[in-house]
Amino acid sequence: MADGPDPMHGFIGAAPPAYAVSVAERDAIAAAIDVDELVELALALGNIPAPSRSEAAAAEFVYDWMKREGFNPRKVGATPERPNVIGEYGGTAIGANLLFTAHLDTESPSGISAQDRFRYRPSTLADPEWTQCWIEDGRLRGYPISNDRGPMSCFLIAAKALRKAGINLAGKAWLTACPGEIGPEPIEEFAGIEYMGKDIGAHYLFHHGGVAPDYAIAAEGTDFGLTWIGCGYALFRIRIYGSGVFTPILDAPADAAAHPNPIYRLGPVIDAIHRWSLQWERESILETPGGRAVPKVQLSSVRGGMPFDFGAGTEVCALYLDVTLNPRQKAADAMHGIVAAMREVDVAGFDVEPMVVRHGFEADTEQVAPLARAVDAATRLVRGAPVERAHPVYSSMWRDHNVFNMHRVPALTTGMPRWRPTPEDMVSSALVYALTMLAICGRGPDGEAAGGPTSVYGSGTSPF
């Protein structure tokens, strides 16, 4: 959690959410959450291999689970191999609609040995937590559970607990599982729909998924904190030009900076880019009620020449620079700084091109307030303390609440501990999600079917 005074909590204040969840309702929903079932679901889902570009099996698992549990699932995807899975619960009266989303893909080595050996050490590749999940010393281990199928399991079980407790929702809760949040991105020759990430996930879901939420939650690990801002990023290619000289006739200069091969100029170039990066990081820190953004910069890769064609050096060397953008910055802001830094370096020529641009976004503080208050009220009921603003790392990255804030749907991200949660942590997170669903959507009439493709708007009493 963030240290010191919490400006977010001062904004939330003491105003109740739209529907005040009672202690009796909390107890009934809590009793309906089976810790063993939740852990088994997280482990089963987490142990399905689902690196980016290979989410089909995990999507099918979620679809089948939703179908068995009566959440009327459907698949909507840009390609059949990478669908978004959308289930729903509620919609029995008049109430706000709340969408939960989590991503199916998990960061991991690609599995392509010719690619991975140029990025990872052998010991890193051998780490079983990339693809395997298990319980050890009372904690759930494995990247797939941490990011992001653990939080996904929590909101699936949350919806089931509401149903088991006999609590209908007036508004509708959408339960969505998306591909491609981790990545990749189409870059250079790695282009086309095969390499698309975010564009076919929550972006595609929003436009083509048959959803119209009033609010949205990106269910991801935040150590039970909350933030409604999210950073974007840009990947800049910085090409340095020089001259190719046949090695047998090369007269190498004493000063590497005078070498015709642009690879030899990388030292001064990296120094200049690093100086700019440190300045960018200092000047990009953004403090808001909904979170603190601390953008970072890092070189992600370098390309120069071809290893099998090695007789005459190379004329081109390229650096790829990953730049985080706070939600009020544009890629152009970074590009101007990079170009200015490069103009200070003695090179034969250069160009700078943004290969990927995704801006960050933030929710309007007044519009997101009902959702933040609902999470706060739920956290108090479950954990006996108010919700806190999430650590800056969680508001300094891309998460899919950006997609909804981009389209003026107030959204935030909140969830269980990011790394190696306990079963009790997951139960707490599921209960917070369930109480938030009830607080935002309101309680529907007893005795009517909750869920299904149609809503009985106009019946019951509105909680608003």
Architecture overview:
Helix 3 (35-46) crosses helix 7 (143-164), helix 3 (35-46) packs across helix 13 and helix 9 runs antiparallel to helix 10 (331-342). The relative contact order is 0.22. With 464 residues, the chain is α+β, with helices and mostly antiparallel strands. The two termini are 32 Å apart. The strands form 5 sheets. The protein has a 7-stranded mixed β-sheet with strand order 1-2-6-3-7-17-8, sandwiched between helices. The protein contains 13 helices and 17 strands. The longest helix is centred in the N-terminal third of the chain and has 22 residues, at 143-164. It has helices at residues 7-12, 23-31, 35-46, 56-69, 113-116, 122-125, 143-164, 202-208, 266-284, 331-342, 365-383, 401-406, 423-441, and strands at residues 74-76, 84-90, 98-103, 134-136, 139-141, 172-178, 215-219, 226-227, 229-230, 232-241, 286-288, 291-293, 297-304, 316-325, 349-358, 361-362, 411-414. The model is unreliable at 452-464 (pLDDT under 50).
